[in-house]
Amino acid sequence: MKIMTLHAQLTEDEIIATLERSSFEVTILVEGSDDIIIYRNLEGFLEKKGYSYIDVLGVGGRNTILNIFNKKKSGSILQDKKIIFIVDKDIWVNVGIPDQYINKNLIFTFGYSIENDVFMDVNCSAIVNSSPSQNEYEVYLDKFMQWYVLALQATINNIGNTTDLSDKRSIGRHPCEVMNRYEEFCQLDDGETYPIELLNVLKENIYCLLRGKSLLAIFTKICKNHTPKGLFEIAAANPKNHIQRIFNDVEKLLKQ
Prior knowledge:
Blueprint: E1 2-5, H1 12-21, E2 26-30, H2 35-48, E3 54-58, H3 62-74, E4 82-87, H4 92-95, E5 106-108, H5 114-122, H6 124-129, H7 134-157, H8 175-180, H9 182-186, H10 196-204, H11 206-209, H12 212-222, H13 228-237, H14 241-255
Parallel strand pairs: 1-3, 2-3, 2-4, 4-5
């Protein structure tokens, strides 16, 4: 078994052609980048279970994986190939997974993204609680959430539209940029109301529902002894509930 990260410049068609030529019995498609650290450990987990005919491909993006899934499901490509798809829930953690993507061969993270699953499995909240920077972290996170919920509501409202959101409502903005332009970013647009109910929902399960890359960026900014890569390595070396669940779901599919 091998893990391979395809270069980001490869087109979707080129990735499909790679899959068509593959001689492996099973291919696992993952998004790539940092999560490859996790899936290297998946490789070891499966090898210990006796599986050695599997290829793990990091294809460089969630949309690419979902597009390939859709085409395979429609019957237009890869009909003789067994493929397992692993993707972040992304905004679907807030609004629910669409029916067309509820499929045994499509495995989702528990939280918004793999970063959330890593955060929870490493128990970063306990690290914060034992840190002298706990108050600084909580103040920073709460302030960020006051803006984030505006971007989240705008993103939910924009589902299905082709128009891009404004800079101040782009959910992927780095927390440092948000803080540097905080007053501007938190200014309500005409007709916009503050989504207090959504904020309350977010606060009830913040480590699952808040965008994972933002969460890790805040954590590593305050807890300076940690890095996102280091947290991924900890989670990969000793998989806990959420990462192990992904591994187990893959194994179940291989047994079928």
